[in-house]
Amino acid sequence: MAEFTKKPLNGEKSLGARLKSAREFKQIDPALAAKRLGIRLEYLLSLEDDHFERLPAGLYGRNYAKKYARWLGFPNSEINKWLAEQEKNISPEINPFFQKIVAKKEFANFPKLVRTTILLLILLACLAYLGFYLKMIVSAPDLNVWEPAGNLKTTSTVWEINGQSEAEAEIKINGEEVLSNKNGDFSLLINLKKGLNNITISAKKKYSSEAVIERQILVE
Questions:
Q1: Cβ 62 vs Cβ 97: under 8 Å
Q2: Total domains present in the chain
Q3: Whole-angstrom Cα distance, residue 117 to residue 115?
């Protein structure tokens, strides 16, 4: 990277020289100043030596200069004037303060925007997972009735009801609880009366809604 030529601004001391003189006048150790400001010591010394090419590019380097100057007691009007004069004496191609790819306000807000976006994405992912999990909890379990496959007529007064649901579901046939195996298979032999018999098969998990299938068997 091209080096900057140190030269006075309008016949006065350079920005770096002013910063260094002010610090030395206050008898402040550069390491202490760097620690108080939260700026790396090498950046602080680069500012004092007018080696602006060693600073982070764009507004970060400019903000370091402004922060250091304010801390040393220089008014904002002077700081802005020095920075403007500094930029006049350096071509835009090599000026680390001249990078305006992102507008100042947008650049300053960029890290916050990224953090906010990431947090929102994480929150949305958590909400989506929570919604899916809650749906799995409250949704009615799968329920299939194999026999009888549909409504039917018969002369028999005994019929076996069988089917399958989810293993953890509670199965009831006409209000009577029926045991199921580890695969969710269940069966129950029921007595039928002459005429129309309504058979209600239901399945329900602990917090779920109820799945219900009805069959009618007509005994002639």
A1: yes
A2: 2
A3: 5
